[in-house]
Known about the structure:
This protein is α+β, with helices and mostly antiparallel strands and 238 residues long.
Amino acid sequence: MCPSLEEEVKLLSMVDVLEPLSEEELEELAHRCPDRRIEEGEFLFTPGDASERLFVMKRGKVRIYRAAEGAEITLAIVDEGTVFGEMALTGQHLREAHAQAMKPSLVLSMGRADLEHVISKNPKVGLRVAQLLSERLRLYENKLEDLTLKQVPARLAGLLLLSESEGVITADKQIKIPTHYTHERLGTMIGAKREAVSRAFGHLQDLGAVQVLRRRIYLADIEALEGAADGASGRPTP
């Protein structure tokens, strides 16, 4: 069922870069820009897509990743209220990047002309988009650097930290990741073989950073996980 205009405005108001807009401006944006529904496993964009569009995640979850030498490296996991696809607006179309839905999602699609219209009416939005671009460029560069320089436990820890936002806090203060990830699937997401992921999980469990119970991942100690992601938690597992 499509959200009402009131629901649309509420969803858009929670997006950081759109926060400067008034309720009337948000209503205009909702009318002006179409929503796109994507099912689990469906791609929103793929390498070589030249479409200059900015996307706003209203509901659902999307993974941004690059493929290299038969493996995948996850650059970002996009949750509700997040803007993504912004690189296309700079002429950098992220030709190597895929955006794939991790569950059924509702996305607002904004073209360059739509964004320019919004910025012309409220320049503060442009400043926030510029800040977003700077942050995302640094994030993507760091993720690609991790693929070549960091050991598998550090890459796995970094990916699990990306998944923290989807977690559910349990009675004993751990964070349960509701999505079931096999070791093979996680391996494709960090550019590692399944056996290496299994060893990395053992390393992270020895550190007390994670637990695996009934095939579900629990983040037991965020500080320890952050240390492992930085490669500063003892001898790495190759």
